[in-house]
Amino acid sequence: MRYILPLLLVCLVHTVNVHAQVNDDDQKTIQHIFGKEKKEIVAEYMDFKNNTNDPFWSLYDQYEQNRRTLSRERLDILQDYTRLYTTLDDESATSLIKRTLENDVAYDRFYERYFKKFSKVMGGKNAAKFIQLELYFQNAIKSSILNSIPFLGELKRTAMSLSPNMGPKHGLD
């Protein structure tokens, strides 16, 4: 996991074409963390065969396509954060947090909407099992990203602690 953190930060800071790479980034992160392709993990966990004619898989493909939109929005927010980090003011910070919270709410609504759809295809228990797995994936991705970006003011504290003129307690004598 610690190897992916610097890689994700580089991806966030240097991605030029965010929209084309979102799905690849999510897929690569999942593959790195779990050692398998996402669809393969889903098939194994759900105990399904990867039969493209199965109603689950056609709904899953629709789900993934729609999920990418939310993932793009999240990545756009993170890119804005990395771009604005050193000059972040109250207005920008408020905007970024509002966008982040709105994206989280949109993800929750998305999961609820697709839970209903998956329930119709495979029953409530299996739909819950799938959504639980998806939440696990998304939390793993989110944790990896959040562990790789600085908290507000973190770089300043780091610079202060490295300064020879500052006291022994990170410049906080």
Q: Return the structural class.
A: mainly alpha
Strand content: under 5%
Q: Helix count, per DSSP?
A: 7
The domain count comes to: 1
> Which series of helices and strands comes N to C?
HHHHHHH
How far the N terminus sits from the C terminus, by CA atoms, comes to 35 Å
Instruction: Please give the share of residues in helix.
Output: over 70%
In short:
This protein has one domain. Helices cover 77% and strands 0% of the residues.
Give a structural overview.
With 173 residues, this protein is mainly alpha-helical. The chain has one domain (4-162). Helix content is 77%, strand content 0%. The protein contains 7 helices and no strands. It has helices spanning 4-14, 18-34, 38-46, 55-84, 90-122, 124-148, 154-162. The radius of gyration is 19 Å and the shape is elongated.
List keywords for this structure.
single chain, 173 residues, mainly alpha, 7 helices, elongated, disordered N terminus, disordered C terminus
Task: Describe the secondary structure blueprint for this structure.
Elements (H helix, E strand, L loop, with lengths): L3 H11 L3 H17 L3 H9 L8 H30 L5 H33 L1 H25 L5 H9 L11
